[in-house]
Amino acid sequence: MAVRTVGDKGFLPLKNFLEEVGDMMILTGKTVMSALRPPYPYGTEFINQFLFALKLCWFPLLVSMVCAGYGAPGLQAANILTLFGSIDRLGGFFVLASIREFAPLITAIIVSGVAGTAITADLGARKIREELDALQVLGVDPVKNLVVPRFLALMLITGLFDIYALLFGIFAGVLATLTNGAPLGPFWATFFTNASTTDLWGSVLKCTGFGAIVAIVCCYKGMTASGGAEGVGRAVNQAVVISLMGVAAFNYVFTQTLLATHPELQVLR
User: Fold this and answer.
1) Deepest in the core among 136, 145, 150, 198, taking most CB within 10 A?
2) 181 in the Ramachandran plot: left (φ > 0), alpha (ψ -120 to 50) or beta?
3) What is the pTM of this model?
4) Per-residue pLDDT of the chain (269 residues; tens, 9 = 90+)
């Protein structure tokens, strides 16, 4: 009996996590159906959430993308390539580093840590004040009126932010090239030789999926918060962690699928 009790306690966190994942999948289905089914009363809220995320995230994303791109794939890769006399290959490397991975991931991290936490805190505070229950009593669907506009806004903003991050990531590569005293001609030549439209739409599509994951997780944690202000703070922390776990898992699956269906992306020229 004691062994069973210990086993139950050991598997309880895993059980709770799997139950939450299932609830998030159900919320995703409800959100998609609510977004497609008329009426559409969330236009103003959608615009407000979009502008809210845009205002909060644009500058942190700019700084993070330039610093990350200049540091890791920029200076470090340039130093290694210089040893082999192939600094001109830095442009091709930035297709892999910036377009395919760094821009979408850093965008997801910034949106989750800035806009996602604000969404969780907002919905969590409404849950604690029983505003969500009051909406349901009045016949107002919280999913359609609160979750759907945030879901659509984060999907759109992350897709657009990905292009924004790409520009500054490539700019960081230009800075790294100039720092090493190399000409920009070979950088752009290898960059455009390796870059393709598949890289671009794959990056934007993947980042849009990241936005959907962040929105669902943050809305779910906010709408299920309990325990007063402390519970809202705990929900915010959990939302960020679970969002990034979901982003990492989705990134692996998406990247493997894209590479499997487009084998030409596996070779840098």
Assistant:
1) 150
2) left
3) 0.90
4) 555 565 556 677 778 878 888 889 999 999 999 888 888 888 888 999 999 999 999 999 999 988 888 887 788 888 888 888 778 888 888 888 888 888 999 999 999 999 999 999 999 999 998 888 888 888 888 899 999 999 999 999 999 999 999 999 899 888 988 888 888 888 898 888 888 888 889 999 999 999 999 999 999 999 998 888 888 999 999 999 999 999 999 999 998 888 778 776 666 66
